[in-house]
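Worked example

This section walks through a single chain of length 292. The input is the sequence exactly as stored; nothing has been trimmed or padded.
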Amino acid sequence: MTGKIIKGIAGFYYVHDGRSQVYACKAKGIFRNRGIRPVVGDNVEFTILDEQDREGSIEEILPRKNVLIRPASANVDQALVVFAVTQPEPNLNLLDRFLIMMMAQDIPVTICFNKTDLGSQRQEEYRQIYETAGYPVMFLSTYEQTGVEAVRRFLRGKTTILAGPSGVGKSSLTNLLQPEAAMETGSISRKIQRGKHTTRHAELFCVEEDTYLMDTPGFSSMYLEEMEPEELKDYFPEFADYGEGCRFQADCVHIGEPDCGVKEAVAQKKIGQSRYENYVLLYQELKNRKKY
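Given that input, the structure is written out below as tokens.
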């Protein structure tokens, strides 16, 4: 049979058969000998050892479309990063770090702002900043259940990373999309009691046929992958349109140089002020890391 690994814990890999069943599987020793480690999102061939207890053995890991290091996962199509419009106020520096991290791994990102029912005068400002930067932006209220169907259409037929800081409504969204998700994780915890006490890792939920949502632990800080400070500007897509207006062209890092097209675009509000300020902070962070 073929299936998809939705969770790995305590040496067991839980494989969803694409329909409704989840099997607790061990991986054959041959993978260790080959230096291959199964990860969440892997498509696998497995043998059922005990149908009643839903136990099996992973025989083969099918070719991967991609592999992410953080969170450790495979075959991811896209990311949905969730922040609240208010309560808590969105940390745009943290959001920009996540966008860079996903861009570095070639994962397209859509930004979703939740809690529109609480109201925010900055809602359109957030849309303008990130749509100008080239990112699709969605708004929803899990409390009023508005915008949820648009999210469902966005997820359909894909494997999507759901990420964002704690307290923004990721769990509420997951429960609206797949009410059985909590029940499924509860049955896994009962089967392997140790599972309740281990650090949370990435976990996939089957929302509907061929549609998986990867819940990740809420993040509160994020360090960029190793990159040269001069490479950072390439991870701000909106800079590309204005870089040709720089006196020093490709050598301009858009900070201290005169006659900079990007800085001019910021002054004219064609690039979000917060995006540029976060770029400068991250550039200095990378530069200081290299120094020490």
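What to look for: Residues 273-291 form the longest helix (19 residues).
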